[in-house]
Amino acid sequence: MKHIESIQNPKVKQWKKLLTKKERDKSGTFLVEGFHLVEEALKHSESVIEIIVSTSVGIPPRWDSREIPVTTVTEEISNSLSDTEAPQGIYAVCRQVHIEVPNAKTYLLIDAVQDPGNLGTMIRTADAAGIDAVIIGKGSADVYNGKVLRSAQGSHFHLPIIRGDLHEWIEQLKEKNISIYGTALEGASAYNDISTERNFGLLVGNEGNGVNKELLAKTDTNLYIPIYGKSESLNVAVATGILLYFLKK
Fold first, then answer.
1. For the sheet containing 70-73, what is the strand order?
2. Which of 14, 102, 227, 237 fits a disulfide with 118 by CB distance 3.0 to 4.6 angstroms?
């Protein structure tokens, strides 16, 4: 086990760079923070490169981290790696794992969802609903952003999350006879009025503007969720949960 005390240590500087999207993309790695996320990462230990832990915290005895390098650091260093108000003092550097999904039958396709909390919640909901893969299009928050990771609560390690061109993905899925459901307010059917398909992709979009119209033109059916109260709309993550569970039934 190594120990680092200087905040100027090159290793510390490299870890801090992982708080930026540029470095995450360049290195193909990302940083998770907190006991729950590190524990979820360790369940898929092939993803974990190293663990960083504050000397004031320590690693829970129940964790099997024997084959993973562990570095202890001062509380000052630990706090410098955190983007939360109450750091837990434990981190893992993880690989961005690219998983193939040749036999996937259900997909969540996300178009330009910019709020990290929404994006993470949608990934977590897709995981809970048993969706096979999440495809994230251009304009969305970075999938490895700290807030996305915390909102997803470990789902990054449970299912494929793929960044790609949604136009291309929709064409590929339709060639596989996978029905594509879009979400729209105009020219759409109430979601609970349709017959569902076993194989499907649900396309959801930006918080303010909805799904790109060019993408909507490629869907098989567009859906909306009726509003029974006085609210003008539903939060995109809530709407995604309602539709995924309905389509997956």
1. 2-4, 70-73, 48-54, 90-95, 29-33
2. 237
Q: Which of 19, 21, 35, 51 is nearest to 87 (CA)?
A: 35
Exposure string of 10-48, with b = 16+ CB inside 10 Å and e = fewer, is: eebeebeebbeeebbeeeebbbbbbeebbbbbbeeeebb
pLDDT at position 64 over 80: no
Distance, CA of 72 to chain centre: 28
Residue 129's identity, in one-letter code, is A
Per-residue pLDDT, 206: 95
| pLDDT band (50, 70, 90) for residue 96 | very high
Residue partners of 127: CB distance under 8 A and separation at least 6: 152, 155, 158, 159
Between CA 171 and CA 237 the distance in angstroms is: 25
Helix H or strand E segment including 179: strand 179-183
Q: In the numeric block, which tokens belong to residue 136?
A: 């994230």
The dihedrals phi and psi of 218, each to the nearest 5 degrees, come to: -95, -5
The answer to whether the beta carbons of residues 142 and 96 sit under 8 Å apart is no
Nearest Cα residue to 80 out of 9, 133, 143: 9
Residue carrying the six token digits 């086990």: 1
